[in-house]
Amino acid sequence: MDAEQLKKLVIDSLEEIKGRDIVTLDVREMSGVTDFMVVCSGTSNRHVKSLANNVWVEVKKRGIVPLGIEGENTGDWVLVDFGDVVVHVMLPEARLFYDLERLWQVPVLGTDES
């Protein structure tokens, strides 16, 4: 599965259980570590954990195992690293504080981007 297909699968998995404000950051020109970052908000710690878990489960069904998962214990910000795609699921307060979209200063792509 290439990075574009993986990005779409991640977005679909987040949308499936009502992830909020999903954006994709194309960082290929800025990072040698990953191609895309997908940022999403959840409504509670439990929702953040569920969103990250759903992404993990759906991608694993396609035979891809994450390189790492961080933040599952607290649920304020869960990061799931698939190499070419890194997923950040955050509470709105954490997302506002860390402001990844501004930090990376790249155009935000809509969720219907494939």
From TrEMBL:
Q: What is its main location?
A: cytoplasm
**Where are the bilayer-spanning segments?**
none
Q: Which Pfam families match?
A: RsfS (PF02410)
This protein's source sits in the domain of life called Bacteria
Q: Where in the cell is it found?
A: Cytoplasm
Record's keyword terms, sorted? Cytoplasm, Repressor, Translation regulation
Q: Which family does it belong to?
A: Belongs to the Iojap/RsfS family.
Function comment: Functions as a ribosomal silencing factor. Interacts with ribosomal protein uL14 (rplN), blocking formation of intersubunit bridge B8. Prevents association of the 30S and 50S ribosomal subunits and the formation of functional ribosomes, thus repressing translation.
Q: How does it assemble?
A: Interacts with ribosomal protein uL14 (rplN).
- HAMAP family named among the record's database cross-references: Iojap_RsfS
Protein name per Swiss-Prot or TrEMBL: Ribosomal silencing factor RsfS
Q: What is the lineage of its organism?
A: Bacteria, Pseudomonadati, Pseudomonadota, Gammaproteobacteria, Cellvibrionales
Designated gene of the protein: rsfS
